[in-house]
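Morning. Coffee machine broken again, so started the prediction first thing and wrote up yesterday's gels while waiting. Chain of 359 residues, entered below exactly as on the submission form.
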Amino acid sequence: MKILHIIHKPQNRGAETFTCQLSHHLLKLGHEVKIVAIYEGCANLPYSPTIENLMASTSKKVIDIPAWKKLAKIVKNFNPDIVQANSGDTLKYAVLSKIFFRWKIPIVSRNASEVGRYLNSFFQIRLNKFLYKNVDWIISVSQESKKDILNHFPFLATKIEIIPVGLEKNVDIDFIQLYPLEKKHLVHVGGFSFEKNHFGLLNIFELVIKEEPQVHLHLIGDGPLKMQFIKEVQNRGLEGEITFYGFVSQPLPYIKSANVLVLPSIIEGLPGVLLEAMYCKTPVIAYNVGGISEVINSKTGTIVEKGKELLFAQGIIKIMTDPDQDQIAYAHKMVNSNFMNDQLALSFVNSYQKIIGLK
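Came back before lunch.
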């Protein structure tokens, strides 16, 4: 088969990273793959073939005929069996290019988050309804993501399935020394966006260090809210208690070396960083949003209802004081059994074959 993947832009976020990892496995399985980005980006994504770019205008997100035309030309020249839209504006560009320039390839939309959280106006609801009316299949990342999209667009019920996010196999993950040496270490991996709730994490961290001063917070990632967050850290006098790393291409050693991975996000699909922590045998604690409860339960980690900052802080302290080794081992086994990309790629291939058979 020939698969054309569309990504929002070259950026170090989960949707783009997973698309690149999936594409590598599809290539290994003997399929032809091309990745196209809508917008410019500076990230060095983990994909060795060239990623083409539509160079779309960020000021013409509603009507961008030149970019639609360029995508249509790529579709015509590559002649894929499947076009997969991977989050961001990808579905909009795929559908409008297909309608305007009349190409016939089936469109698959990968639903990697909770769509309803982004439908803030009548126009957005109507536009997304129109777009989803013109897709052939939805691959949702979790049961909750599926439930969310069907709550808003129930007509999708007959053309949706679930394939989770996955991990690459890493035989050897280095242990690195986190500083200060005398402290225990919390790590958070994620871009500084409102979904990741860094300001809520700061509240939680303050509650933790009031009870356990010998704790340090490590933040991996960049993003639009980073400078605002740094100013808030300075306002609270916490500069010495938090280390910022920026983007890290290989965060697994930091995750493996920490005492706890924390994820108080307010919007998620199925975050790969939780699976990475389980793979590294690092205890996890997260808010119960999106598909998180599908991987975190009493057997695999600690889950807290969204907004319960005191309970989250207490959970962190309990994990640091008495980590549950049976829980850690069970989580590690679960990830290895159910969430590895080489196996998930086969699920995507099965879906593509099914969709082609429907046409």
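The chain has twelve helices and 13 strands. Going to sketch it on the whiteboard this afternoon.
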